[in-house]
Specification:
10 helices, mainly alpha
Length: 263
């Protein structure tokens, strides 16, 4: 299936997608949605990696925004992307791949992200228990309530962060494409963690846009939904066939175009 900007309007697809709660791509095939006429994405202005999860991530923030100076609402968005990736991977039946993403909020490597978030309701114990239970190989049934609690805690922090949603989405788009370019090289996944993180950032941006809940935001939600659906239907598994970088970049550009109208 090929999407072009605004094609959904003529097909009547917009209303159907805007009502969905799925975090995965359309269909069951393990191949990406193809975008037409790729356009150049703006140069990423955020960090290209988060350090410590993949082979290229240490030092990837050089020349990019420093976590210690990043506004707290964007740090919460960044953390939310990792949790979204972890939840999707766990629900896809890959707890081993999910573990490092769900550990992110309490990892010592990412301590700078947590500065000031305790006041927003951050509960580190939830994520510590999730990580320990995943490492212990507990069943999905045992861990599911803990994952629900982790998701709820992230939602609470987002609610309390006094966020600039347009700024958050812009930041997440820059980070999404920067991570994807690290994760996918010459049509192959070379850093699964970054491929998966990019998915989580797209999901988080889509969910933030949905909370705007205004007619003006609907085209933005639609473009973000199409971006999320460019990952395979089973989720961002390490063994996926990835969409080409230029097609992800083209869709990010479409998101940015819609976003510019909300500033």
């Amino acid at each position: 299936m090929t999407y072009t900007p605004k094609r959904w309007a003529s097909l009547g697809l917009g209303a159907a997608l805007l009502g969905t709660t799925s975090l995965t791509a359309c269909g069951d095939r393990n191949e990406p949605v193809r975008a037409e006429a790729p356009v150049a994405a703006p140069a990423p202005a955020s960090m290209a990696g988060e350090g410590g999860e993949g082979g290229t991530e240490n030092g990837a923030m050089a020349g990019m925004a420093d976590m210690q100076t990043l506004p707290v609402d964007k740090r919460i968005a960044f953390m939310s992307g990792h949790v979204a990736a972890g939840l999707a991977l766990f629900r896809a039946g890959a707890p081993d791949q999910a573990a490092r993403h769900l550990l992110h909020p309490v990892s010592e490597t990412h301590a700078a992200e947590r500065a000031g978030i305790d006041a927003l309701g951050f509960d580190a114990a939830i994520f510590e228990k999730v990580s320990a239970d995943l490492a212990a190989g507990k069943s999905a049934e045992e861990i599911a309530p803990e994952l629900d609690a982790a998701e709820a805690n992230i939602a609470l922090m987002q609610q309390n962060a006094n966020a600039d949603p347009v700024g958050q989405i812009d930041f997440l788009m820059d980070t999404c494409i920067a991570e994807y370019k690290i994760g996918v090289v010459e049509g192959q996944i070379v850093e699964a963690g970054e491929f998966q993180d990019a998915y989580g950032f797209a999901v988080t941006a889509r969910d933030i846009a949905k909370r705007l809940d205004t007619p003006e935001a609907e085209p933005l939600v639609m473009e973000l939904e199409l971006l999320v659906r460019m990952w395979p239907s089973k989720g961002p598994l390490a063994e996926s066939i990835p969409a080409p970088v230029n097609e992800i970049a083209a869709q990010v550009s479409r998101v940015k175009l819609e976003l510019s109208g909300l500033r």
